[in-house]
Structures are given as C-alpha cells and as structure tokens.
C-alpha cells in the first residue's frame, strides 16, 4: 500500500458520513427515512435554464472555454453584481467561473495562503472552509458565534483573534448552518477591521437569494475600501437548484483575480462549457422560479419554527436566510452526535449533528427544510414524539 500525503492524512473524512451511511443502510432495510440532512434544494432546475444548456450542447459548445468562463456568462455576472450587489467588475479579467463555489474558494485560499498563515472562520460554519485552509497549510482560527447574538458575529471577538499571522477571513452570510444574516452595521465593522489589519476577505454569498422577513443581503465588496481586498464567491447551486451542474465563480479586483485564475488554470482549466450557457439563462432569464422557490422555503421555515418553538427541551434562533434551522438540544444533556443518532434510529429523521460544523455547534442539530412540506410535517410530528420521551 502507498503512504498518503501528510496533507491529506491530516484531515478526516467528513464526520457526518457515518450518519449518512446509517440512514442509507436503514432505508435499504425498508425504514421510511425523512431526509433533513442534505444541503441542497429539492426542486428541479427551472426548465428554461435546462433548455439553454441543451441548446448549447446541440450547437456544439462542447470544448474547453476561456479559463475565466464564456464571455456571455462573465458579462451576465458583471451585470448581476452591479445591479444587485453594487459591485463593479470588469468582465474581461475580474471574474473566473469555476466548478462550483467550492473550487472558487479552494483556488482563492491556495492563491493567497502560505503555510502557517492564519485564517479567521466563523464557528460554526460550513465544514469545508477549515479543511481547504488546512490543505493549503494554513491555520483555521475559529470565531465563535453565539445563539444569544442570533449567531451574528461579534466584531470584537473577531478583533481579539487577530495575530501577526492573520492573513484572511472567510465570511458566509446568509450562513450555513445557522441561517443567520449579517446586518449592514456588523458588516461595516468587519470591513473596518479588515482594513485596519490589512486582511483579505473571502465573502461566500451562495445563499444570498434565500433570504426572508425583512432581512437584507449586503455584499462586503460593496462597502468603501473593500473591493480591493474582497473576493466575492457566488454560484448557481442553491438559488437556481443547479447544485449538480457544478458552477460557481470568484469575482474581485484584477490583482486579486490574477493568482486565482492561475490556480484555476492548473486545477480545472474551465467549467463545463454547455453548463455555462445554462447559467447565462439563469441570470438573464425570468426570475419567477427563484421567487417561487424562496416563497416555498419561507413557508416551510415558518412552519418548522412554529413547531420547534412549541416542543419541549429545544430552543432555536429564528433563521432569516438559507434553508437550515439550527436548534439547540442542550437541555436533553446529549451531545449532538448522540442526539442525531437517536433521532435517526428512533424516529427515522436524518439530520446533521451541530458539532460537525465546529465546537460552537455542539448541542445543536442542523435540519434542512429543502424537502417537501408533507415530509416536514411528518418529521416535526416525529421529532415532537421523540422529545416527549425525555
Ligand atoms: N458555500 C456554502 C456555505 C455551502 O453551504 C455550500 C454547499 O453546501 C457551498 C458553498 C457549495 O457551493 P457549490 O455547490 O457552488 O460548490
């Protein structure tokens, strides 16, 4: 057998795999599992977007594209970023289309992080950030988020964690796994800290369109002094139900984009040609399907929150973005892994233990409401039945 690289041996397989495998095993044996573990929309990609990709395929758009992506898509992204996010980019050299947001984040981290550099990351957060940073030899530094603050980052805590090795921070709003949305005044404080300490920022805005109540999405790069130091990451997976298409992008100042594009060149060259034509249609075509999806998510979110609020032994912050609810079950005295396992085996709901997202996630469970209302109703009945056993 071959020894694996130190780089890859230093990071584990995702620790939520165990639960996924168990859910699959139970399903094979005939259990009726309710899936609330998966972080992807349950909707199909809108028809007009599929048509555009099909047409591109028929028309022979089957070759490598420019590393940055097809010009039509870069222009559509530039227009979107200007109109919706107040970010002005040059489609020529300030955006690179990639294989999902994930590749864009990977490229950006590898383009800027040297071994030993520290990267500030919200805790809890999407698992991948810390592992991508570690793969690059960097050191992830968790910035704890607290339920008492609605899981909104406290800029003072951010400041306290800065050392002379800090080079970058990764901000995600709307936030996975808590659904929190960073308000403008907090983003302004984060921006002034980034400027004061000369930090580069990755702003992962993948959930921007999934936003509820009167929350507002503000892009960090649109704040004064931030464009030069912010790489905005976005994509098509969540808002357009295109997660399997694997399309995302990084956008920012040309000097930031040069090393990112270099990394992308050696990583994947270019994103899938015909898929990019679908993405053009996603941005330039009707937004009606997106609006409908968001409405449906909102209905489910409200329903779930009402049900969870009425249950014993659980507390939850009202999420105003993404498609997750992140209640605490600390009052049961169980760890989140024990809790998730019991919820799965005793009432057949697959969910993700909060500890998978960082230390601060301990005691919480992430439920995704990207499943039908019918399943959600059934799931909430089962969860309630489960909690009365304590
Ligand atoms: N960023 C966050 C915060 C996510 O939760 C996810 C998917 O779960 C992604 C990025 C991945 O995006 P993509 O499918 O574009 O790679």
Automatic annotation (TrEMBL):
Q: Which InterPro entries match?
A: Aminotransferase_I/II_large, AspAT/PAT-like, NHTrfase_class1_PyrdxlP-BS, PyrdxlP-dep_Trfase, PyrdxlP-dep_Trfase_major, PyrdxlP-dep_Trfase_small
One Pfam family here: Aminotran_1_2
Keyword hit for Signal: no
Q: Which SUPFAM superfamilies match?
A: PLP-dependent transferases
In which family does this protein belong, per the annotation?
Belongs to the class-I pyridoxal-phosphate-dependent aminotransferase family.
Q: Output the lineage of the source organism.
A: Bacteria, Bacillati, Bacillota, Bacilli, Bacillales
Write the record's keywords in alphabetical order, separated by commas. Aminotransferase, Pyridoxal phosphate, Transferase
Would you tell me the protein name for this molecule?
A: Aminotransferase
Q: Which PROSITE patterns match?
A: AA_TRANSFER_CLASS_1 (PS00105)
Annotated Aminotransferase class I/classII large domain ranges read 32-383
MF GO annotations? pyridoxal phosphate binding; transaminase activity
Task: Give the record's GO biological process terms.
Answer: amino acid metabolic process
The cofactor(s) it depends on are: pyridoxal 5'-phosphate
Top-level class of the enzyme under EC nomenclature: transferase
Q: Which organism is it from?
A: Niallia nealsonii
EC number(s) stated in the UniProt entry for this protein:
2.6.1.-
């Amino acid at each position: 057998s071959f020894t694996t690289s130190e780089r890859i041996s230093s990071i584990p397989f995702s620790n939520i795999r165990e639960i996924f495998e168990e859910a699959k095993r139970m399903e094979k044996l005939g259990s009726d599992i309710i899936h609330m573990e998966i972080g992807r929309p349950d909707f199909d990609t809108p028809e007009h977007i599929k048509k555009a990709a099909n047409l591109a395929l028929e028309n022979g758009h089957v070759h490598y594209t420019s590393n940055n992506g097809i010009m039509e898509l870069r222009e559509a992204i530039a227009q979107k970023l200007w109109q919706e996010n107040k970010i002005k980019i040059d489609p020529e050299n300030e955006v690179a289309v990639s294989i999902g947001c994930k590749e864009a984040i990977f490229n950006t981290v590898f383009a800027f992080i040297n071994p030993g550099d520290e990267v500030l990351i919200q805790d809890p957060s999407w698992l991948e950030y810390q592992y991508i940073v570690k793969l690059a030899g960097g050191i992830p530094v968790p910035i704890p988020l607290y339920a008492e603050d609605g899981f909104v980052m406290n800029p003072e805590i951010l400041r306290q964690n800065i050392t002379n090795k800090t080079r970058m921070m990764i901000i995600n709003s709307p936030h996975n796994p808590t659904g929190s949305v960073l308000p403008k005044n907090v983003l302004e404080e984060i921006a002034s800290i980034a400027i004061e300490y000369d930090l580069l920022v990755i702003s992962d805005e993948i959930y921007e369109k999934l936003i509820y109540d009167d929350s507002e999405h503000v892009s960090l790069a649109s704040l004064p002094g931030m464009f030069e130091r912010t790489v905005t990451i976005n994509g098509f997976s969540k808002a357009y139900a295109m997660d399997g298409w694997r399309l995302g992008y990084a956008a920012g100042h040309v000097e930031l984009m040069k090393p990112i594009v270099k990394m992308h060149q050696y990583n994947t060259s270019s994103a899938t040609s015909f898929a990019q034509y679908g993405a053009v249609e996603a941005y330039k075509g009707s937004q009606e399907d997106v609006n409908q999806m968001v409405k449906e998510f909102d209905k489910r979110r409200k329903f779930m929150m009402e049900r969870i609020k009425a249950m014993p032994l659980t507390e939850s912050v009202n999420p105003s973005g993404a498609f997750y609810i992140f209640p605490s079950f600390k009052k049961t005295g169980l760890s989140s892994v024990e809790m998730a396992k019991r919820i799965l085996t005793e009432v057949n709901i697959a969910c993700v233990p909060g500890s998978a997202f960082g230390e601060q996630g301990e005691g919480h469970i992430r439920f995704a409401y990207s499943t039908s209302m019918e399943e959600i109703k059934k799931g909430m009945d089962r969860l309630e039945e489960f909690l009365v056993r304590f």
